[in-house]
Amino acid sequence: MTEKENRRYKVKMACPQCGCSNLTTLSREEIQQRFGDLPNVELDCHECMIKYETARADACPEWDAECLMMQEGKGAS
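The chain above was modelled as a monomer; its predicted structure follows.
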């Protein structure tokens, strides 16, 4: 596996209802499997159990920046 395939992305989220935060690290495959290419991601709060939606760019700016580079042809390998 290459370094790019092993890269882990930080997904940060904060619940709009109770304010608790969560930080998860996911691989490229895990992000694609969980969130696909949608501009918004649906998340579950593990404290108050609500579902909420947030922009993918806010939840994982690293992943969003890499996706934009791929679309522009700068990150394609």
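Residues 61-72 form the longest helix (12 residues).
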